[in-house]
Design a protein that fits this description.
alpha+beta, 165 residues, 4-stranded antiparallel sheet, globular
Length: 165
C-alpha cells in the first residue's frame, strides 16, 4: 500500500510530461490566408490599443534663452484630456525633443509659468502651456515628440520637426 502512494505521483508526473510533447508543430504547412488574416487582425488590435486618452497639439515655437542664458527652443503645446479622470499634461504625457539624434534637456526660461503645465483638466478640458528645451546648437532641426507617460508601446501622440535656421 505504501508503494502505491509513491507510484501514483510518479505516474501522474510522467503522464503530464508526455502530454507536453504531444503539441503540433506543423510549421511548414500553415494556411497563408489564415496567417495573413491573423496578422491583419493583430495590426488592427494594435492600432486600437495605440489610441490615447489625451490629445496634444504642438503649436508655435520660438528661440529664446533659458534661466542661465543658454539658447533654448520654447514650444507651445495644447493638452486636451479625453479620459474620465482629472489629469495634467505633466502627469499624462512625455514631452521630448531631439537634435542630431540626441535627446535635449528640458529647461525653463525666466517667463515660464509652471502652473499651466501642472494644471489638471477634467474630461474634455484643455490647457495651453509652454516648455523649453536646451539646444545643442543653433543649426540642426529639432524633432519634437509627445507620448503617453504610461504606455507599453511608446506610441507617439504628436510630433513635429522644427527648423532652427
Amino acid at each position: 500500500m505504501k508503494n502505491m502512494f509513491r507510484i501514483i505521483p510518479v505516474v501522474a508526473l510522467i503522464g503530464c510530461l508526455g502530454l507536453v510533447g504531444c503539441g503540433s508543430s506543423d510549421s511548414g504547412s500553415s494556411d497563408e490566408s489564415s496567417s495573413s488574416g491573423a496578422t491583419e487582425q493583430a495590426q488592427q488590435e494594435q492600432a486600437q490599443e495605440a489610441t490615447s486618452d489625451y490629445e496634444v497639439k504642438i503649436g508655435k515655437t520660438k528661440l529664446g534663452k533659458d534661466y542661465e542664458g543658454d539658447p533654448c527652443l520654447i514650444v507651445t503645446y495644447t493638452f486636451t484630456n479625453n479620459s474620465d479622470e482629472k489629469m495634467s499634461a505633466a502627469s499624462a504625457c512625455n514631452f521630448e525633443a531631439y537634435q542630431d539624434g540626441s535627446e535635449l534637456e528640458m529647461t525653463f526660461d525666466s517667463d515660464w509659468d509652471s502652473d499651466d503645465y501642472y494644471a489638471n483638466c477634467k474630461k474634455g478640458g484643455s490647457q495651453k502651456f509652454q516648455l523649453a528645451f536646451e539646444l545643442d546648437n543653433k543649426k540642426s532641426d529639432v524633432e519634437l515628440e509627445v507620448s503617453d507617460f504610461i504606455s507599453f508601446d511608446d506610441t507617439v501622440i504628436a510630433s513635429k520637426t522644427v527648423s532652427i535656421k
